[in-house]
Amino acid sequence: MEWIKDGNLDFLKKRKIEAREEAQKSVAEIIAKVKSDGDQALLDYTRQFDGIGLASILASEADKNEAVRHVPEPVLAAIKQAAKNIYAFHKKQMPKSWTEPAEQGVVLGQKVTPLDSVGVYVPGGTACYPSSVLMGAIPALVAGVKRVVLVSPPQKNGRIADGVFAAANEIGIDEIYQVGGAQAIAALAYGTESIRPVDKIVGPGNLYVMLAKKQVFGDVAIDSLAGPSEIAIVADEASDPAWIAADLLSQAEHDRLSMPILVTVSEAFGKQVEQEVMKQLKDLPRTDIASESVNRQGKIILVSGLSEAAQVINSIAPEHLELATGDPHALLPLIRHAGAIFLGKYSSEPVGDYFAGPNHIIPTNGSARYASPLGVESFIKRSSIIEYSNDALQANGQAIAAFARFEGLEGHARAVEKRMEGAVVHG
Amino acid sequence: MEWIKDGNLDFLKKRKIEAREEAQKSVAEIIAKVKSDGDQALLDYTRQFDGIGLASILASEADKNEAVRHVPEPVLAAIKQAAKNIYAFHKKQMPKSWTEPAEQGVVLGQKVTPLDSVGVYVPGGTACYPSSVLMGAIPALVAGVKRVVLVSPPQKNGRIADGVFAAANEIGIDEIYQVGGAQAIAALAYGTESIRPVDKIVGPGNLYVMLAKKQVFGDVAIDSLAGPSEIAIVADEASDPAWIAADLLSQAEHDRLSMPILVTVSEAFGKQVEQEVMKQLKDLPRTDIASESVNRQGKIILVSGLSEAAQVINSIAPEHLELATGDPHALLPLIRHAGAIFLGKYSSEPVGDYFAGPNHIIPTNGSARYASPLGVESFIKRSSIIEYSNDALQANGQAIAAFARFEGLEGHARAVEKRMEGAVVHG
User: Fold this and answer.
1) Which class would CATH give A21-97+114-222?
2) I need a labelling partner for A376 at 20 to 30 A (CA). Which of A267, A348, A427, B76 fits?
3) Cross-chain Cβ contact A403/B98 below 8 Å
4) What is the mean pLDDT of residues A110-121?
5) Among all residues of chain A, which has the CA nearest to that of B281?
6) Which residues contact A227 (CB under 8 A, 6 or more apart)?
């Protein structure tokens, strides 16, 4: 891990990913092909990229039932409890419609409406992410979205991962398409014979999925552009170095580009954590991935005190932040930019990744500066309500017309003035 | 105006704007140039596109004071009252942080934090939009954003429009840059010698501004991609055809691509409105623009009743919706997709454009299906809070570890299990 003792955070400037023009071009081609050839393009790309000849793009009920049988009972129970917790947390996020009188004769408000349809992308390949199904879909279900669709690439056995089916089954989602990559994003955005288009696409994916989401953005809504993820941990001797090391590694094992960061006031503690990281790395099944992440991106940042620790965290704007100091509540008010904040030494990141209830689809790569975790807010929208009585229009019409006329929009002024002149007749 | 009597809404499919590749390329070039040459690129492009040789990119206090003197007193008063109303409405939108106990030993919550810095784009050219200053900036100020910056292209007199300065002055914004177009977006996203980068860019602009926002999206947040705007009015004999016609024209005069739509159960009423539109068009100062909008995109859609009217509206998902029927409240519950809803015959669109308080930066081009008007929500973000006690971790650790292990993430499982083993020592 790289030690930073002089407060120099220049490494943050290198975080932005420059997508190669080549990748952008092939994504544009894939999107164009799906637009023109529909299902046939999905079948062709699935054969080409996943090596699977699909009989059908829609996953079958039989496949789903078969898949669920392959998931061990304790895992099904954990999925069930996690779903319950995720439901409970997200229900607290639901905003309400309101209307209120403003001045005399004026009622203003906001009407909250769920989106009609949403597509959740669940990554596939060698791994299996039932947790992503729960985290992507439950907030949409809580929001009241009627049509929630899953897409996920087929595995080597020709169907979507067992756990993905099991999680979908738990929350009652049955419109599931066995297609992944940029082609899945294009199908969700523009539709094919099998897949009706959706209004919003959410969920993380690889670089091609991310680039496809950026390209379709504007024709359809997307959640965010996921990049490599981070964990930053502020810790000191109040915590066990072995626990902190394990948490750093839980992030590192995700992805070679992940960034595990320790921020500490104690050089001695930092060294202990570093030793533990190296020790625990050895027998981690995903040691290749985790080692590359730790060696290339791992940081131990030495700070002078809590105030500097908070400054460093706010500059990083990490996806995950653990405050594993003796008094995490003293530090919390200083934190401005972090996606999910884990308080105290027992609140290990995986508690939030799987189980506690808050979402694990969190802004990455510093975008916690301006973005939020996925939530019910991601699946509703607001309409403004404006109701003026005749009296209110008479009282304010002149000001409105003067403003409009000053902007050179005479038609706007006249629309108001016609009502001022005509209100005697039509009032 | 085109009459639609058979319920065929195919015209909606043609709404999407295909940006020419050429325009995308020149925007990419402008962005690259601003990244490499900074201020010099801004000065060069401002000379090239606006025909202005700027002495400074930052607008001067002297220019601002001079500009405000050119704005008539009644307009200043209207700006002041509008600002007050916009503040009052947006204050009701502010979400609150919360933490709550979940199960035993578990506290969950959400911490709401404003963004650090925001750039508001205010269109320029021949027009002048003080209302866009208020609508773009006030929600950010209400959210608590510390640094709110304006950019707007200089006018022929070499400085930003008088009204823009006046509105900025009213709400206390003094970091104002006299630069527009894609170059302004690039400067806000990546910074130059004069302009520090911001975290989010909001506000409508022309095609180049829109394409630039799409290209920088991901490195920085943006509000939405503005396209041509719509008004849809559901009206019948309860309203004066002249008023409805004036409202259609108030949208039409904005832009040749604007779409004014009347939805009505009464063919006779539709014909009266159409006649009024043609009559009022004649002496409208912006008759060229409004005529093109009315003739090319204007629609009168005949429906069988309120239920069909609502269906049509939900398919259009208009930016602005007027419900100018006898009983607009009967129709409101059926409306799912509309940016701003004006209730009753006195609630003319300009009331909302300038004055009432809700935002006038509203999703266009059908994107009200999935997006909201600009608001306080656009300028805050949420961090999740997760706090588990030792007991809570012991109670749930096994389930979490089982879930993680099933996903193939052994490091996640171990991070939890280490705490279960070690909690006696460190508890």
Assistant:
1) alpha beta
2) A348
3) no
4) 98
5) A411
6) A15, A17, A210, A257, A364, A365, A367
